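Let's inspect a concrete specimen:
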Amino acid sequence: MAATDLPYRQSIDNCFADRIGEQGLSREKFKAALSEANAALGWLREAHDSGALPLLRLPARTDDLARIDEVAEQILNNTTDIVVFGIGGSALGAQALAQLTGWGTQAHKQKGVHIHIPDNLDATTMEAVLGNLDLRTTRFLVVSKSGGTVEPAIQTLAAMGALEKAGGGKYMKHHFAVLTEPAKNGKPNPMRALAEANGFPTLEHDPGVGGRYAVLSNVGLLPARLIGLDMKAIRHGAAAVLKPILDGASAEDSAPAAGAALQVAMMREKGIAMSVVAAYADRLDRFLAWYCQLWAESLGKDGKGTTPVRALGPVDQHSQLQLWLAGPKDKLFTMFLTDTKGRGPEALAGIAAKTDFAFLGGHKVGDLVDAEQRATADTLARNGRPVRQFSLPSLDERTLGALFMHFMLETIIAGRMLGVDPFDQPAVEEGKILAKSYLAEEKA
């Protein structure tokens, strides 16, 4: 499958020394990194064929869609509001998908239903969420891979308590659905036990797919279905990115592998310490947040990795561009350029002509955004900063599914090249254990 068959186009031309100068990568160093990435591609093909990495089987799956439809219809029945409880990978993918509809930037309803995804645990926010909803017609979807994560647990218990206080305790089972992995090998799953004790419908979270890699599973697709998105299109976009690799494409001809080779070579050869991802579209903001968790948690090990930083244009060109151009030369920029020209409200020429903004007359909002995103990318390159560009002709389910798969593969390949396990997060566990001990001390 040719790169032109993808719903996006990646360009890394402005990352090389022969284009931007000393901060650019040499073609020779990039070629050597591509050779390492080729070995990782071989590992991915073997993992797909053996089933050792279930993530790689998700784009082709259809057998789980009927169950997702069934639970979605239960949740949507006689419902005005749906609240998704989860944190990190259990919520960021859902938020990224929801933003395709304008969620988070404008009022959104799907068949009269409001969607709420309060992923970050905050006492004031939770109080407002539970206090401002009609609990009689509110449904809660709880997403927790292990079933032991404390943030969605306390959200769930608080919601159950609110229902109980409102007199709806006897209807509790009609208000909740839980997505979590099955109990296995004698290891308890507290959230599954809670669901079973209360008669909540459940879906199985695949134990072989980690939370931050789970957006193409029911973890992302159930919220997508609730929001009214096309689940199959999301997976078709992901399949378009994966197929060349499974068909034997080299790293040079695989967009995710070329991206991983670029990032790793830049770390090693140019001292790149930050991976800046910037988009000129509100609807990509939560996708950027999803990327930041994926990249940081997967690769930040053994003193390796780069710090991901998200930026949203045009607002962050005013707040960060000065640093990008005149600050430390320790950043690789990845910019997502959307097709905005000719879109949005228009500044009427007759009104603009009477002001100092006559040059904006006859232009639409999207015209200015298009000019600014191209100008920022070009300014960075002209000032010797390495800039990778993703051109997105459309922003829909297929495109986002493709971007999800691209960056999951890029992250996995980079992990293989760096010699770190991209699927674990051992450093995170210490803080979780300590937080639980503080709670225990307060009760003592």
About this structure: The beta strands are 9-11, 81-85, 114-116, 138-143, 176-180, 202-204, 274-279, 307-312, 331-338, 387-392.
